[in-house]
Design a protein that fits this description.
- The strands form four sheets. An eight-stranded mixed β-sheet has the order 6-5-2-1-7-8-9-10, sandwiched between helices. Strands 15-14-11-16-17-18 form a six-stranded parallel β-sheet, sandwiched between helices.
- It is built from 15 helices and 18 strands.
- The protein is an alpha/beta fold.
- It is about 35% helix and about 20% strand.
């Protein structure tokens, strides 16, 4: 019996860095193991030089690096030919646009993560799911009344189902506008064999990968919502209190390297830690755990957002200390996972982890298993949309 078809779309080819690609791969392989024939679709669109080539460290129209990287990570799952890239000239690479249209017409679901693709063929998909990974940025940036999708922009209004990593959207103290749409909570799914679990009691550094300030601040009803740089500066003296146990892989055009290093933080360029999926997994596996601030918008608006990167640390069996965005209302904190409000909370969490490192590593893995397993997370999304899914063990045989 043939499998139902899932069209999955994000921006793997245009942004082929390891952390991003791994987050997407959990969805792709997770859907496959739930019984779907998955096709990955992306477009060049109208953007100028939309493809990042990490080998040359430049933006380009040439998608060849990203295509190779995508095929490499899909190959172990038998999906290396299940992709389409609509190039600058409007032609389909991988498969033709005529075949893409057939697949969309036959598909059970379009699964859009990040909303940055809309070739015309997507309108043929009868069931469309929008996954909001950046709560606040999505809703502040969308039209408050229905508008149509176009190349490079999938309008949430063109989808029947809406899910968000912001588990507190709609709460009275969360100012993010819903625009009347039903934003249902979900999380980053984890396929555990994609993340190596490694116990490293001799590892010294709590690490993270972060963008310093990747977007302009957003102003909504007189309030300004910013990026991680704002939150980091509030705890910049932390390394002096805890010792040099933190390492940051930082990316961004305006990173104040001297300021960070003079405050006692160890730093490496962000691309060193995330050039490929294998390197990203290695960076996590070699860490003692994760420490990270959150984006100012997610903290200030209390969205309940939780990072796909932090989910990967948990799945690797690494205890994490991350800034609370309201997720502590939904996830168990205090063993393996620590939510902090201020520097004192971080100091206490570090001391607790150092007292029982092995126990917190095991607890971190259990949190990932209980709350982020792909069969549970994606199975729940599919069930709430009335879509079929099979037992993941049977689907992978």
């Amino acid at each position: 019996m043939s499998r139902p078809i899932a069209i999955y779309t994000s921006y793997n080819i245009r942004y082929p860095l390891g952390g991003h690609v791994l987050a997407e791969l959990h969805h792709i392989v997770g859907l496959q193991r739930l019984g779907y024939e998955v096709w990955v679709v992306e477009e060049h669109g109208t953007a100028y030089h939309p493809c990042y080539d990490p080998e040359r460290n430049e933006m380009t129209d040439d998608p060849s690096y990203g295509i190779r990287a995508l095929r490499d990570v899909l190959r172990p799952h038998g999906l290396e030919d299940n992709w389409c890239y609509v190039n600058k000239d409007g032609d389909g690479l991988g498969i033709s646009r005529a075949r893409l249209r057939e697949l969309c017409r036959e598909s059970a679901v379009l699964f859009s993560r990040a909303g940055v693709n809309w070739p015309d063929e997507f309108a043929e998909c009868r069931t469309r799911i929008f996954i909001d990974t950046d709560p606040g940025f999505t809703q502040f940036g969308m039209a408050p009344t229905p508008n149509r999708s176009q190349s490079n922009y999938a309008s949430p209004w063109d989808f029947q189902f809406h899910f968000t990593y912001g588990e507190r959207l709609g709460q009275p103290d969360c100012p993010i506008p819903t625009h009347g749409l039903n934003w249902q909570p979900t999380r980053q799914p984890i396929v555990f064999d994609l993340v190596p679990r490694r116990f490293t009691p001799d590892a010294k550094y709590f690490t993270t990968v972060m963008s310093w300030s990747s977007r302009k601040p957003i102003v909504f009803r007189g309030e300004e919502y910013g990026q991680k740089d704002i939150e980091f500066r509030r705890i910049i003296d932390l390394s002096r209190r805890c010792g040099q146990i933190f390492e940051l892989a930082v990316a961004g055009p305006r990173v104040p390297w001297d300021e960070i290093r003079n405050a006692g933080w160890r730093t490496v360029p962000g691309t060193d830690a995330t050039k490929t999926v294998a390197r990203y997994n290695e960076f996590i596996a070699e860490s003692r755990g994760e420490f990270s601030v959150a984006v100012n918008l997610e903290v200030k608006a209390r969205t309940g957002w939780f990072s796909d990167r932090t989910a990967a640390y948990l799945a690797a069996g690494k205890p994490v200390i991350v800034q609370d965005t309201g997720f502590s209302e939904f996830l168990p904190c205090g063993r393996g996972l620590f939510a902090f409000q201020n520097a004192d909370d971080v100091v206490a969490a570090v001391e607790e982890i150092q007292r029982d490192y092995a126990g917190h590593c095991e607890a971190a893995y259990e949190v990932a298993q209980n709350f982020f397993a792909a069969d549970k997370v994606l199975g729940d999304v599919l069930a709430r949309c009335g879509l079929p899914h099979r037992n993941p063990t049977a689907a992978s045989n």
